[in-house]
Amino acid sequence: MADTLISVDLSESPLTNENIHNRWHPDIPIGVWVDPGDEFKIETYDWTGGQIADNDDAADVRDVELEQVHYLSGPIGVTGAEPGDLLVVEILDIGAKEESQWGFNGFFSKQNGGGFLTEHFPQAQKSIWDFHGMFTTSRHVPGVKYAGLIHPGLIGCLPDQKMLDMWNTREKALFDTDPDRIPALATLPDGGPTAHMGRLKGEARDKAAAEGARTVPPREHGGNCDIKDLSRGSKVYFPVYVEGAGLSMGDLHFSQGDGEITFCGAIEMAGWLHLKVELIKDGMAKYGVKNPIFKPSPITPKYDDFLIFEGISVDEAGTQHYLDVHIAYRQACLNAIEYLKKFGYSGAQAYAILGTAPVQGHISGVVDIPNACATLWLPTDIFEWDMMPNADGPVKFLDGSIDVPLAPDL
Amino acid sequence: MADTLISVDLSESPLTNENIHNRWHPDIPIGVWVDPGDEFKIETYDWTGGQIADNDDAADVRDVELEQVHYLSGPIGVTGAEPGDLLVVEILDIGAKEESQWGFNGFFSKQNGGGFLTEHFPQAQKSIWDFHGMFTTSRHVPGVKYAGLIHPGLIGCLPDQKMLDMWNTREKALFDTDPDRIPALATLPDGGPTAHMGRLKGEARDKAAAEGARTVPPREHGGNCDIKDLSRGSKVYFPVYVEGAGLSMGDLHFSQGDGEITFCGAIEMAGWLHLKVELIKDGMAKYGVKNPIFKPSPITPKYDDFLIFEGISVDEAGTQHYLDVHIAYRQACLNAIEYLKKFGYSGAQAYAILGTAPVQGHISGVVDIPNACATLWLPTDIFEWDMMPNADGPVKFLDGSIDVPLAPDL
Amino acid sequence: MADTLISVDLSESPLTNENIHNRWHPDIPIGVWVDPGDEFKIETYDWTGGQIADNDDAADVRDVELEQVHYLSGPIGVTGAEPGDLLVVEILDIGAKEESQWGFNGFFSKQNGGGFLTEHFPQAQKSIWDFHGMFTTSRHVPGVKYAGLIHPGLIGCLPDQKMLDMWNTREKALFDTDPDRIPALATLPDGGPTAHMGRLKGEARDKAAAEGARTVPPREHGGNCDIKDLSRGSKVYFPVYVEGAGLSMGDLHFSQGDGEITFCGAIEMAGWLHLKVELIKDGMAKYGVKNPIFKPSPITPKYDDFLIFEGISVDEAGTQHYLDVHIAYRQACLNAIEYLKKFGYSGAQAYAILGTAPVQGHISGVVDIPNACATLWLPTDIFEWDMMPNADGPVKFLDGSIDVPLAPDL
Amino acid sequence: MADTLISVDLSESPLTNENIHNRWHPDIPIGVWVDPGDEFKIETYDWTGGQIADNDDAADVRDVELEQVHYLSGPIGVTGAEPGDLLVVEILDIGAKEESQWGFNGFFSKQNGGGFLTEHFPQAQKSIWDFHGMFTTSRHVPGVKYAGLIHPGLIGCLPDQKMLDMWNTREKALFDTDPDRIPALATLPDGGPTAHMGRLKGEARDKAAAEGARTVPPREHGGNCDIKDLSRGSKVYFPVYVEGAGLSMGDLHFSQGDGEITFCGAIEMAGWLHLKVELIKDGMAKYGVKNPIFKPSPITPKYDDFLIFEGISVDEAGTQHYLDVHIAYRQACLNAIEYLKKFGYSGAQAYAILGTAPVQGHISGVVDIPNACATLWLPTDIFEWDMMPNADGPVKFLDGSIDVPLAPDL
C-alpha cells in the first residue's frame, strides 16, 4: 500500500496547509521526500481551493478570486534528482475524494478572465457534475454521460531562478504591450496576501511571493498544460531544474475537452493521485527535451465515434486572419454549438459539453494560406440520443426548461 | 461496378482535360452529372499536375509553378441539388493509379511559398515514397513504414457568386496589409494563362479566370482542408451553393500528419476515388451547417501508441505570444524533431516524417494566458526501432549517409 | 455518494456474514433491498473466502477447500422485479479493498480440480500479484505489467425452483456417466457444513443446502461466467426468475485472460462494486433473452497489439478430434507457452501469464471438418521486452532464478 | 509495381490452369519462384472455382460439387527456403477482381456438408453481397452494411511426405469411427477426376491425387484456418516443410465472422493478393513454432461497439455437456439469432449476418465444470438501426417481405 504523503482537509483553508503552494519559485521548500522507485499518494484541493459550491447558483463562479489559484500539492523532493535530469512520473491512478463525488464547470465573467468564447458567453455560468463511479452526469446538462478521462490539469517541477526570471521577463513584456486590457494579456507576480509559498515564512516568503510566477500558463516545465490525455496511467518525463526536482501538482479534472475551452474549464474537482517516480540522469540533453514529453495511458475511455466540425481562420465578423489556429478552432467550436442547438440544447449547455466532454481539437491544416483549418471532434457515444444528420432533420430532444445557471454582472 | 466518369491521362497535360479545373468559380460548367444514390469513380492528377518526378533531385520541387495548382477533377453535377442543401458524399474507396505507385513529399523554398518550418528549412527538398499495397516507405527516410490513411486534400462544391465575392474581398484585404511579403499573405485571383476553367472558353473563360478564387485555402465549402481523417470510408456533408452542387476534388494524399506541415505536404499522388452521393434537402438550415461536417471512416490505420510532445506559444527567440496555437504547435514539432535527431535522423528527415506520417496535432489548451499549449502525437509503431526514452539514452540507428535531397536557391 | 449495503470484514470468516452465501437456491432470503434507479455499493470476499495468503508458499492453493466456494455477496432485492423481467445492472466501478492491494493466481492440483492444462501442470502452484493503482505486477513472474480489466467472475440472479431442479437434474445426469472421475465431471449439491445459505437457518437451511446448486458453472442466469469483458463500466441485462430478482455476485478478478485457463484462474481478489440497477419489464420475452446479454465498458485497457497463436483439434498424442474447440484452444495455449519459454520464462510462468493477462481466445473456425481452429491472442504491450519474432532469433531475458512457487502432492 | 505471377481467368475452368491445385501433396510442382524480399501479386478463383452465380436462386449452393474445393493458387517457391525455416509473408493488400465486385454466402444442405447450425437450417440457402468500394451490402439481408475485413480463408505451405502421411492416418482413424455418418467426420483423399494436382500429369498425378490431402481442414501448416484477422496488412510466419516452401492460397473472403459458422461461410469471392516474402532460417526451432503465428494488420475496420451474447454447453435438448466450447458457442449464436428475430429478421438472415459480419467469438470460460462459456460479440455499428435493448422493447424494422433464397432438397 502506498502512503499518503500530502493530505488535504477540504473543510479547512488551503492557506493553512504547509504542503500547498500557489506560485512557482525555487525557494519554496521541499516538504516531503521520496526515492526513485517509490510509490506514494498525495491529495489535492480543487484548483480554487474550495471557492465553488455544489449548488445551482453561479454567483461563486462570478465572484471567484483568481489571484488565489492554483492551489498545488508539493513540492515533492526526489532524492538524487539534479538539474538536467528527467523525472519520470507514472500516474498510477487518480480519483475524487470519497467525500466529494462531484465537480464543477464554469464560464468566467468577461470581467474576470472570460474564456475561449467570452464574446459569446460573457457572463458567469456554472454547471455541476455528479460522479457515478467512472461516469459523470449533470443536472444542468441533460442527455449526456461520460466516463472520466481523469487527469491533473497542472503538474511540473520547480523552476530554477534563471528560468523563473526568463518567465517573468517575457510575460511582463507581453503584458506591457496592452497593460489596461481586460482580461489582461498575462498574470504577473503580485506578491499579494493570497500568494501561498508553502512553508516559506517571513521575509523569505515576501521576497519569493513578489517574484513567484503565477501558475496560470503552461511553460517549459509543463505546469498548467490542461492536456486531457496526461491522464491516469500515463508516464510523463519532466525536466528537472533544481536539486530534488520539486514536483507539484493540482487542478484535477474528472473530464475535459481539448482546449479546456470554458477556462473553468474541465470538470474541476478535489482528489488524490497515486504516483511512482524514477530518474533518467542527464535525460534532458540525452533526449533533447525542453518541454515534458509523455506516453499516454493504456486505459482511457473509448469514445471513438465522432461527428467532426471544421473551422477556418475567418472570424465572426468575416475578417480574414493569417493561419490563425486559435480563430479556426473557435469557428469549429461555434459550428458545433450551432449544430447542438438544433437538437434543443441551449448555447451554454453546448458550450459546457465542449468544455467537459472528451472532444478532440485537431490542428488539421496550417499551411494553406491564408486559412488555418481546425477540427472539433464531437464523440457521439456521449449522447443518449442519435445526433447524426439524416434526411429527416434533427429532433428536438430538449424543451429548454433546464439550463446552466447564470449570475449576471454586466 | 461503378463507372469512371472522369479519366485522366498522366502522360498528358491537365490543361488539355476539360474535366479538370484549378480555380473556383460558379461559371465553370458542370461536365458530368449523377443522380442521388449513384456510385461512380473519378480519376485525379496529383495536385501539381505532374510537375514532380520520381527521382532524387529536388530541383522540380524548387522550381514548381504554384500558379498552376491545384488541378481538380470536376465539377460533378448532382440532379436535384439546390442551394441550401447538404450534399452527402460517401468516399467508398481511394487508391493510387495502377501505373503510378509512388508519391512525393516536399519542402518548398522560402522564395516559393515555404512551409510551416520555413525559417528552419528554407530550401527546397524532396522525398519519394513508394507504395507497397497498403503501406509506404521512402528510400530517403529509412526506418519508417506506414499504412496509408488515404484522403483527398481538397474537396468541395462550387461557390455561388456572392460567396466568391466575399472570399475575394476578405483575402484581398488581408493581402493588402503587407503586399510585398514573401511568402505572400494570400494568393489572389490572377487570370493568368495557367488558370484552367474547365470547359469554359473565350471571353467567359477570361472573365471567370480573372475573378476565380485560388484553390489554396480551405473555405466555407471545404476546399483545401487537408484533413487527414477525411479519408476513404468517411461520410461528408457539404454545403451546396449552386444548382447541381458542382462537386470537385483532387490533391490526393497517401498519408499525412495533422497540419500537413511540410506544405507539399503529405505524400502527394495521382489516383482515383470511388464515391456515392445523396442529398439532404435544405440541410444547411436544418442542421445549422456553415462549413462541412463529417463522420470519419470505420477503417483507418491503427497507430495508437504515441510519444507526445508539448509546445507553448513562446517562439524560437523566446518572445511570449498570446494564446497563439500556431506557434505552440510549431514548438511541439521542433521539440519532436530535436528528439528524433538524437536517434540519428537529420532534421529534414524528421520534418518529412512529421509531414507524412499520421501524427496528430491537438489543441490541448487555449485559455491559460498567455500560453497556448499544443501537442504533437508521434505514433511509435511507424518506426522499425524502439524510440521510447529509457535510462540508457537513445541509440543512433542511422549514420547520416542517407538524407532528403536538397536543391539550393538561396 | 452511494451507500455500502453489504460490508465484509476480511479478518472474519465469511460463514459468519449473513449477507454472504455460497450456493444457489430460491429460498435464500433477500437481505437488502434497492429501488430501480438506485446506486449502491457492496463489498465481497475473494472467491475462497480468504483461504489464500500473500506469501511464497503454494500449500494453501494445494490444500484449498473447494466445497466452500464461491462466497457471494447478496442476494439483493430490487423492488418491483418479477419473473420474466430483465434486470439491468450498470457496473459503475469496481476496486480492490484498500487494505488488500494484492491478488493471487493458482493452478490447482490435479487431485483437487486441476485446470485447463492440468496434464501439463498437475501440481499446485501460486503466484502473487501486487496492485499499483491501475496496474499489477508479480514477484513470481518478472517482465510483465498490466492495467487491470477488473470484473466480477460471478454475478447473477437467484433461480426459481423449476430452474434449480433443471440444473440439478442435468448435471447429475452428466456426473453419473463417470461418477468416479477425478476431477469430477460436475459439482453436485452436497448439503455439507460449508454450504452457506445466507440468513437461512435450521431446517429450512438444511433443506436448501441439500438441493442448492453449486456456484461453479455458468448457467442460464449468468453465474460463474468468468467473462473478462463484463468489467467495470459494462451494462448487463440479467434474466429475473424470482420476485425481487435476488442479485448476488463475487469472485472479483483484477485481470484475466479469455478462458480463465488456470482455473484459479484470473488474479483473484477481495473488493467492492459500485452498481446501479434498472428494470425492463417483461424483457425476457420482448428480446428473446435466455442467457444474460451485455454491452461492454467504454473504459478498458488498450492492449491491441498482438502476436496470435493458432491451435487445431489434434491433441498432444496426435489424435484427431472432431471440431473440438476445447482441444484447439488448448493447443493454441500450449503453442504460446512453448514460444514464451524461448525467451526464458518457465512453463508455469507462461501459463500464469495466459491465465492472468488480457489475452483473447477466439473461436476462429468451427466448420472445416475435422479440425476446429482456435486462436490465442497474446498482447505484446504487456511485456517489458520486444517479444516479436525476427531473423536473429529470441533473446533469453530471464535466467530461471525466479519461478512460480509449487507445493507438491503427487 | 509488383508483377502478377499467377493469373486466373474467371471465364475458364480452374482445372485448365496449371498454377492452380486443390489437394495438398509434396509432389505438386512449384511453378513460380520468388526471392526473399520480393513483392508480387497473384490472382485466385473463389473457393468453388466459379460454381456459384450472382442470382437469386440457391440451387447452385444446393448442388455444389464439394469434391472440387478448394481451388488454390500456387505453389510458389521461395529461393533458399528449407525445411525448418519460417516463411514470413506480409499480406500487403487483397482485393476483389475488378470484373467481379460481389461475393456469396451460403448454407449447405445437410445432405452436402451442412454447417454449424445445420440442424436449425438444414436446407441450402444463398445470399449475394455487392461490394461498394470498401463496403458490402446484400439485397437479401437489408439493413446491414460492413467494411470488408478481407482475408484469405486458406493459406499455407506444402507438407512433406511425413506430415502428409500423418494427416491421412489420423483423419482416416477418425473417419473410421463412424464411416456412414452424414455429413462425414472427415474428407479423405479420393483420387477422383476433380483432384487438381497443378502441373503434375500422368501416373505421378494419379499417385499424388490418390494420397493428396483434402484442403478442407486447417492443419499444422495453416491451411484452411478461416481466421478473419489474418487479413490484408497482417504478417504471418509459416512453417516450411519442403525445399522452396511451396506457398499456396485461395478462398478469399470479403468479410467473415469468427467461426465462419455458415461454412460457405464468409462472403466468398475471387480476387488477388499482393504479397512480400522473407525467411527466418531455422525459425521453427528458434521460436518453438508448430502452427503458424501472426501479427494482425494495423488497418482493420473499427467495429468496436458490441452487444454480447453468452452461451453455455447445455444443448438445445437441455442435455449437459462437459466443457464443450463448440456447443457453448452454438448456444450463443442461437441466442443472438433469437434476439435479431425480434427486430424483424428471419432466422436465415440472422444466421447470414453472424456468418458474414465481423462478429467475434470468444472462449470466455473453459474451466468452470461442467459448463464452458462462449460469447458472441455482435458489432452494433453494422446495423442501420439502433439494436440495443431498452425499456420500450424492440422495434420491428423489417416486414419479412425479403428473405434469403432457399433451394429445397429434403
UniProtKB/TrEMBL annotation, chains A, B, C, D:
Q: Could you tell me what this protein is called?
A: Formamidase
Q: Which UniProt keywords apply?
A: Hydrolase
Q: Which GO terms describe its molecular function?
A: formamidase activity
> Entry's NCBIfam families?
FormamaseFmdA
| A Pfam family assignment | FmdA_AmdA
Enzyme Commission identifier(s): 3.5.1.49
Quick one: where's region Disordered? 204-224
Enzyme class, one word?
hydrolase
